[in-house]
């Protein structure tokens, strides 16, 4: 084997290691997380880095000497078994990043004539992708909980009532998805209530989402944050929230829903599906708006606005994975009973 063949051998080994590492990350994104955005980002990266002329370069292929590779034995003895999917992501991202670094170095040699800048760009793209994929994995269990009944505890709607006690009733009724919406409360009151409700939700293993306020979500250790189109942008909120916090986004149009999905939202909410008195100035999307959003997003879809026992089935049929209710639950004489009745009805009507 001449020296040039030895260089091609290095390129071949690292090109293979790169494709393998990227393919493993892609399989996790595609088949385990079922995340379209991450899957296509990984696929595009793999294609841009591995579908070059060099993969069909016979010189590269025939420089291969896997049987006499002195590293092969060492590698198998060395590799400790990854314990979690998180460590599989980390190990394979590292493999691919190291390969890219090696490829970048050898591409820089005049003998190979490869594009070093391509590998360098790819490596930096992969650093970000690794972070996004790992965070998405950490959020999976919370994102999977965006299903069934979602009760928004509206502090204004409940004015004068014992809000923690009302929340407990909804939780006793079986709700595992709670949002605190407090449009007129002072920051101090909002935070005190959020801390209290977060603790109560924890007792029941329920998710606790804060509406609008990143600072309150951070301060009370909420499981997530709900943001509308005029609230803080998702990308900004993501910078500050822990990686396992979920973010839900209200979308008025399919375009807004797709943007939210592409930016990494954990769910989108569409409304108002039916007329509502709870938020008088709300934009009305109707069932047709909900259906249109359902057609373009793969992430969990929450329907909100005017949902009650007589119309909830239409929202489910239109594609909602979860229904967010205020008045139909909080306005009921027995909140625990109303909650459990809704859950029973939704379970019975479940559409696969
Ligand atoms: C689950 C859910 N969906 C939609 C909204 C509405 O959010 P937004 O448009 O930001 O309006 P406000 O609730 O902040 O008035 C929501 N809060 N929750
Ligand atoms: C807070 C809120 N947001 C909506 C939206 O469409 O974005 S509708 C709404 C009010 C939901 O209350 P009820 O269940 O009592 O109609
Ligand atoms: Mg809002």
Automatic annotation (TrEMBL):
Pfam families: ThiD2, TMP-TENI
Pathway membership: Cofactor biosynthesis; thiamine diphosphate biosynthesis; thiamine phosphate from 4-amino-2-methyl-5-diphosphomethylpyrimidine and 4-methyl-5-(2-phosphoethyl)-thiazole: step 1/1
Family: Belongs to the thiamine-phosphate synthase family.
Record carries keyword Metal-binding: yes
GO molecular function terms attached to this record: magnesium ion binding; thiamine-phosphate diphosphorylase activity
Designated name of the protein: Thiamine-phosphate synthase
Cofactor, how bound (note): Binds 1 Mg(2+) ion per subunit.
Cellular component GO terms held in the UniProt record: cytoplasm
This enzyme's EC code(s): 2.5.1.3
Cofactor requirement: Mg(2+)
């Amino acid at each position: 084997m001449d020296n040039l063949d030895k260089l091609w051998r290095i390129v071949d080994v690292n090109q293979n290691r790169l494709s393998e590492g990227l393919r493993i990350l892609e399989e996790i994104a595609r088949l385990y997380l079922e995340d379209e955005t991450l899957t296509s980002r990984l696929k595009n990266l793999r294609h841009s880095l591995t579908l070059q002329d060099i993969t069909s370069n016979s010189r590269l292929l025939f420089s291969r000497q896997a049987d006499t590779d002195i590293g092969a034995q060492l590698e198998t003895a060395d590799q400790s078994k990854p314990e979690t999917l998180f460590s599989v992501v980390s190990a394979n991202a590292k493999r691919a990043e190291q390969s890219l670094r090696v490829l970048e170095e050898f591409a820089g040699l005049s003998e190979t004539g490869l594009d070093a800048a391509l590998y360098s760009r790819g490596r930096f793209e992969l650093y970000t992708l690794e972070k996004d994929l790992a965070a998405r994995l950490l959020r999976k269990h919370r994102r999977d909980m965006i299903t069934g009944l979602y009760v928004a505890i509206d502090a204004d709607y409940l004015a004068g009532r014992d809000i923690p006690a009302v929340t407990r009733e909804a939780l006793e009724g079986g709700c595992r998805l709670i949002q605190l919406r407090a449009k007129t409360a002072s920051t101090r009151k909002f935070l005190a209530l959020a801390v209290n409700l977060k603790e109560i939700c924890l007792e029941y293993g329920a998710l606790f989402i804060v509406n609008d306020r990143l600072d309150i979500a951070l301060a009370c250790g909420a499981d997530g944050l709900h943001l509308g189109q005029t609230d803080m942008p998702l990308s900004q909120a993501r910078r500050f929230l822990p990686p396992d916090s979920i973010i839900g986004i209200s979308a008025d149009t399919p375009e807004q829903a797709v943007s939210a999905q592409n930016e990494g939202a954990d769910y989108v909410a569409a409304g108002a599906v039916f007329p509502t008195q709870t938020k008088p100035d709300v934009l009305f999307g109707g069932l047709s708006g909900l259906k249109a959003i359902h057609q373009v997003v793969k992430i969990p879809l929450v329907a909100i606005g005017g949902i009650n026992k007589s119309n909830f089935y239409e929202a489910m049929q239109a594609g909602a994975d979860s229904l967010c209710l205020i008045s139909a639950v909080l306005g009921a004489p027995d909140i625990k009973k109303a909650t459990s009745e809704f859950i029973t009805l939704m379970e019975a009507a479940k559409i696969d």
